[in-house]
Amino acid sequence: MFLLSDSDGNVIKNNTFTDSRYGISLATSSNNVVSDNTIIKDLNFDKRGIRLDGSSTNNQIINNTVSGYENGLECRSDSNYFSGNVFDDNLYGILFRQGSEYNKFENNTIKNNEYYGIFIQDASKSNEFWNNTISSSNEYDFYIEDNSSGHFVVNTPFSTIYVESGSDILILKYLFLDVNDARGENISGIDIKIKEEDSVKYSTEYFGGSDSKTDANGTIAPFLINYKKYDGSSTPTVIPTSVSARSNDWVETSTFDPSNTINITVPDLRVLNTRTDVLTYNIQTAIDNAEEGDTIHAWNGTYYENIEISD
Which part of the chain is the Periplasmic copper-binding protein NosD beta helix domain (predicted)? Predict the structure, then answer.
């Protein structure tokens, strides 16, 4: 076993630990790097492969392989970073406990674990999971209990989850937008507003914001949006995403599933004032902008609008 206690700023690298009760244990130790180690136990599922205990913060746990332990990783600390690790064939791949908070877990592989891939308990809060692979957990990929809340997941697919009452986890998705004209060509300069439930997340000037209109590729910069929430239940609540698009006098709002690219088609302008050569989408807009003696041409089609003509 490699044990650090009250020790900061160390590097533990390129070691192999076999059949140790604990592989690597950090206790009240911060700003350490633990990387490229292999920690293997002979499948009697005892103790912990890697453990962070006490106030062990700002440690980097990178590119390690752990198998055969009760807990591949047990984290009882805050604000640590875990990346590129493999937790294979343990009882529990990862365990967050004793109020662990603000840890970031990124690009790790958690597979073939006997019970749970990721187990969160003891009121642990606000841990992040980015771009991980979880597979072949015998019971649950995620198991969250004991009022553990505020966690979120980005691009970390899972098959099975249990969320106890009082606990929660949020699923975020990158929102991708593709705006085209009636011929299927990308269209720039379209005003956009995106809402997550009642919260405005993106808004161009027309809609009262300062974000950019669509670019030459008919899109905007992708950004994360809340998609689903497991809130005290293993059944998620889908969070509605609505998108409004505007071109000239055409405005349309629809609800979409942000897990797929959101496609919007802007229809052709189809009403012409022959004097001004101005095209609009609606007949009423052309009438409102016309002067006495103007001629308005309307293309063949269906117009869903009421028309009012006044002196």
Answer: 4-155
What predicted TM-score, i.e. pTM, was given to this entire model?
0.89
pLDDT digit of tens for each residue in the chain (311 aa)? 678 899 999 999 999 999 888 899 999 999 999 999 999 987 666 689 999 998 999 999 999 999 999 999 999 999 999 999 999 999 999 999 999 999 999 999 999 999 999 999 999 999 999 999 999 999 999 999 999 999 999 999 999 999 999 999 999 999 999 999 999 999 999 999 999 999 999 999 999 999 999 999 999 999 999 999 999 999 999 999 999 999 999 999 999 999 999 999 999 988 999 999 999 989 899 899 999 889 999 999 888 888 888 76
Domain extent listing, the chain: 2-166, 174-226+237-266, 269-311
Q: For residue 283, what is the enclosing H or E element?
A: helix 283-288
Nearest to 43, CA basis, from 64, 65, 69, 66: 69
2-166 maps to CATH 2.160.20.10:
yes
**Neighbour-count burial for 64-83, b at 16+ CB within 10 Å, e otherwise:** bbbbbbbbbbbbbbbebebb
Token pair 């006490």 is found at 54
CATH superfamily of the domain spanning 174-226+237-266: Carboxypeptidase-like, regulatory domain (2.60.40.1120)
Under 8 Å between Cβ of 37 and 26: no
